[in-house]
Amino acid sequence: GDLTVATRLCDDHVELVISDTGEGMTKEVLDNLFQPFYTTKVGGTGLGLSVSQKIIHDHGGDIMAQSRPGAGSSFTFWLPIPRDQDQRSPDRR
Question: Across residues 56-72, what is the average pLDDT?
């Protein structure tokens, strides 16, 4: 299938959407996707997406997955844009 990556700059965050036209996921898989140790892969640990979600949340962002069997999947990431209190260059004191 095709893989599409799109970004959008919003007022206070950046949005990143990664979509494919692959086989998609069932409702059961989608409902458990971010649960630690849940995997559909032989030999998988089920930690990749749960750890990724934690890292994104720790940075004030969010991640969402959408999917339909036979129609592909889409992951949307929202990451805040840091607003520095001091806008000066590090070289200017």
Answer: 96
